[in-house]
């Protein structure tokens, strides 16, 4: 997950390969609650691991369910089996509507002493119609903040189950889902009827609910979309084991990607087929209308680019409310204006999504019209795109939708602010995108930070990489590892061994993971950091064929979304076209003192004079060697950090980087 302040997506061109998508949010949270309300234990597989499922799981634990987490996506729930939950609890439900609504209903009919609350945005998302329906039933629910909105308090009900229960269907289908999941708990002696008032929106989500209720032993009778009967004698029973399908809304970004950017090789999505029980799977039809070539299989889909530009679309999106947002960004690449209709529910989602899509698309240069329940997006021709910072409103879908703008024909980057908001449903969204997206290496930004030993470049470069969400290349480690491997192989580090050491360097099984350095399985992080290892590295690095042997390895670090590389020749030899080069120095005395402090901290004895002599000798060798000597690239910016803290140097580098980006201030 990218927990950075922003993530800059370089211009992207192609998409091909396979992706495995996280489990469906709607299915995951329904399954968790149903398992909790059932008799018996349910083993859930491929559960979505995200903010929304985490708050649900935490709530279930607080309510007294046994919850055992297994490997990724696996969790076992011991159901309460009709037993009352913990009698009092204060549940924090984040911004998860799929937790807030059904838990409100279930706890309200079971009764107790509960508080249900969430993030500030959750307290702006309406719940009044559900509360009205529950109150009519005899539930005791109070508003702790604004009338009609969470946070809520829940007490003990005096249930009146005789008359049909009315609920509005035109604000959020989650109200009906909540009642459908809660009422089987009390439909013991007699059947309970729910009557939907107003046009029911988002029907496919109700189908998911009914489908899952069946899996847990409850068959609801439905007359059209207005009357639902929960049979007498209802009792939740665990199906034992349950698989969660991949999320169809999450799939929409990759279907779009395939439609816009697949090459001769298609984009393949695993874990989801066209027979999915999720309504958003019908996004496939809309994507096909726009030109995508989609082949559905069992549990997989293959997507290719068909019509290009995409074909404009005019569509009622009621049946695919979440996935339809993806159509809005696809529409930027269409052959005419596209209209998305019947999307009033967007206004009460994680943010006002109609407004968000309009405002952010306009930042890209697009013309967008909006109405109370519709959006019209005009295509954005080549030459008219603008580099934009996309505000994401703590809405995962806004972030994911606008990542598609990186495929603009004008070769512009796109800045996604607060990229971690995707964690709501798809924590590894960007990693997954980068695993299939392609762009010429020259489009992937590289920041080079070169300089002498102990100048702090490694620390500064790693911190800059972390701030930008970029990869980090410590090129010195490659020379250190080579020298260590050579020594271990019994080779003298000298010119006569050059061919042997170069051969070793070419096939070196070096691996960088979690800040550690490995040769094969051997963790050599500490072994390569000694003074002696540094001096040996300096010696091997003067051998031209060793340098050649390590070039491909270093170039391989230039991967999406970008790279910060530190060394001696990053800016001069390895990445001469890099858009930002920095030469980081500090006085020899300062560097010797810094090194001294590091060694003392590790309990290694040293003398500053010796260290200074050592690093001056190393600088001299590194800068006087004939190949790739240590020197600033002609276009490098000099940064002397003798009197600066690491944080100040990092801020300086980030400032220079920002100043070179095309985003408006
Ligand atoms: O940055 P460092 O101290 O880990 O580097 C160890 C040695 O490796 C350094 O003295 C010279 C060599 N080196 C190099 O020649 N080119 C690089 N890009 C990085 C390091």
Account of the 3D structure:
- By secondary structure, the protein is an alpha/beta fold.
- The chain has four domains: 211 residues, Enolpyruvate transferase domain (UDP-n-acetylglucosamine1-carboxyvinyl-transferase, Chain, Alpha-beta prism), CATH 3.65.10.10; 219 residues, UDP-n-acetylglucosamine1-carboxyvinyl-transferase, Chain; 135 residues, P-loop containing nucleotide triphosphate hydrolases (Rossmann fold, 3-Layer(aba) Sandwich), CATH 3.40.50; 84 residues, P-loop containing nucleotide triphosphate hydrolases (Rossmann fold, 3-Layer(aba) Sandwich).
- It starts with 5 loop residues before the first strand and ends in a 6-residue tail after the last helix.
- Helix 3 links the parallel strand 6 and strand 7.
- The longest helix is centred in the C-terminal third of the chain and has 17 residues.
- The model has no long low-confidence stretch (mean pLDDT 95).
- It binds 2'-deoxycytidine-5'-monophosphate (DC).
- 2'-deoxycytidine-5'-monophosphate (DC) binds next to helix 14, helix 16 and helix 21.
